[in-house]
Structure formats: structure tokens, C-alpha cells
Predict the structure.
Amino acid sequence: MKGKFLSFFFSEKVHFRHYFGGLSLLLVILQLLTGIFLIFFYDPALDNAYKSVQYLTNDVTGGGLLRNIHRWAAFLLFLAVIIHLIRCTLRWDFFNPAKRVLWLTGILLSLPIFLLVVTGLILPWEWKGYWFMEIIPNYFEFIPRIGSSLKAFFIDSFTLPRYQVIHILILPIVTLILIDYHFLDKLRQRGVFTYILRHTLLSLPFIIAVIVLSKYATIPSNDPQEIPMPLEGRYIPAPEWYFLILLLPLMYFKGKVVLILSIILPFLLFVILSILPYLYRGKKVPEGWDFLKKSRFRKLIKGVMVFLIFIAITALIYRGSYKSPTLGCNGCHHINNGFRMGVVPKQFKDRNVLPNLNDNLWMMGHWFYPDEIY
């Protein structure tokens, strides 16, 4: 009896790295369930969006917990997808012809999941959502020829109801279709319920972590009482860690460097990963790659790659999260000329020249109404 019980839950290879794909599916389901609850309280009007979020968080029983679960589950989902992708890459799944569709749909899935996080960050329309929406047009402005048109399009076409439709309807449909092609079609033969039950129990530590974080590391919902004051080192506006990697060049470079680091390199990486299975159509690992079959070489290569990826991501996040008045202002007032929000005055640190910096009421107005108070 004990053997049957263990074989039910551990019929696959027992190692934590084998379960991040299943964890990702469970987190998508959790996002759908909590998202449905949030829909009933969210008002997409510009003047009521954050008020409805505050009402849900502060006045609805369990509303704050479910909203924070929705936020932390999105964080863990993005992390689980990255780990799952790294693991599949290091396992050389792209060499397996039987996994071509699996690989391609998995790479494509990263795009709607990323866009779900982007639109979800904007919808609450507190100060972080507002300033993040300001960054998006600036990001696309660097694309040659069409950059200015794209920037104008994102500014002119922006409304919260449109982003809500994209977030709760279009992107979830695309995601579910890709998930079905990714592995549910084959999983139906073995039993979807069995798979979900097994991975639910195996993923309990992660789910418990999400609940604990949602309870004790909550999203601030006290605007405008808690206003961004970067010059005083409090409530410094910053995007989530997974956006910092793309947005860092906007803070430190100009011109073509931003285009290469923030747009061309991510696009090339996405394309290369998508077509990897089709670059080699053999049924085995290519000649010259035989050393990969040796466990010592495999472990060494995987260890080095994981270490380098970890160091690179950690360094970029640390660099972007460094809390200084300069970065706090440049998080919105980018150092490139021509941005709609303008550049920071050269004397922005000198409170004798700019006495308004000592006026908290003026700073609050500048943050929330930058087109009127500056």
C-alpha cells in the first residue's frame, strides 16, 4: 500500500527541478481563480480604478489576501517559467524531434505570460502603474523608423478598459490555447486530474510560500498617504525585478546602445530559442557533442551555465535596485532628451536652488499631476 502511494506521487524522476513545469500550470490556475474574484470589484475608470483596488484590499473580507496572492503568484510564475526553460535548455530538449512542438509552444508561452504581468502591473493605476505606463512608450521609441509612431500609438490608444480586456480576455485565451498544445493534449491520455493532484501536493511548499508572502509582505494600498519620495529615500518607484533587466539600459545609456541591449538582444534571444529545434533535424545529439553524454561534462557545463545566469541576473537586479536619489528620479525622468516627461534639472539635488523639493505637498502633486505641477 505504501509503495503504491509513493509511486502515485513520485512516478516521475524525483528531483525538484522536474516539477517547475507542473508548478507553472498550477500557478496559472491559481491566477485564473483569484483573477475572477478581482474582476467583480475592479472599476477600470481612471478616477476610480485605484479606489476600487483600495476598497477590495482594505474593506472586503479576504480581498487583500487574494489580491496579494494574485501578485505573488505572478512573481513565482515568472520565476518558475524561467527555471523550467533553463532546465529544458540544459537537458538539450531542442535536440529531440519528438519535443519540437513542446519546445516551440513553451517558448511562445513566455510572451503572453510576460504581457499578462505587464498589463496586470498597470491596471491598479497607483503610482507604480502610472509611471510604468509612462516607461512603455519610451521603451518602444528606440525602434528605428516606427519607434515614434509606436510611442504615439501607445500614448493615444491607452485606456484602462482596453488593457483590462487584453488582461482578462485576450491574453488568457492565447495562454490556454498554447498550454493545450504544449502538453495538455498528450496529458489527457494519462489523466489530467492525476497530474494536477500529484503536482499540487509536490508544489505545496511553493504554494505555502505564496500565502505567507501574501499575508506578511503585502502590496501598499495607502496612496496618496504613502507617496513616492525618492529624494528622501522613501517609497522609491521601481519596476518589478523581471522588468529591470530590460529597462536598465534606459537609465544608463543613450541612442543605439539602448536599442541593442533592450530591444535587439531580447528579440534575437527569443527568435533563436524558438527555432533551435529546427536548426538541427537529426534524431540524436550531433557529432562532436558526444562529450555531453558523459555525466561529468554535463554536470560541469550545467553548473557553469547556471552560475553565470544567476550572477548575471543578480548583478542586473542589484544595479537597477540600487536606491539613490539619482536612480529614483531617473526611474521616470530618463536621461535621454526628447522624452515626454522631460529630463531632470541639473540642480535637482540642490534644495537651495529648488526649494520645492522640501515641500511634501508639492512633491505629492508633482508625482500625481506631473503635467500640471512641475
Notes: The domain at 12-218+229-285+292-343 is CATH 1.20.810.10 (Cytochrome Bc1 Complex; Chain C). DSSP finds 15 helices and no strands in the chain. Residues 322-328, 334-342 have pLDDT under 50 and may be disordered.
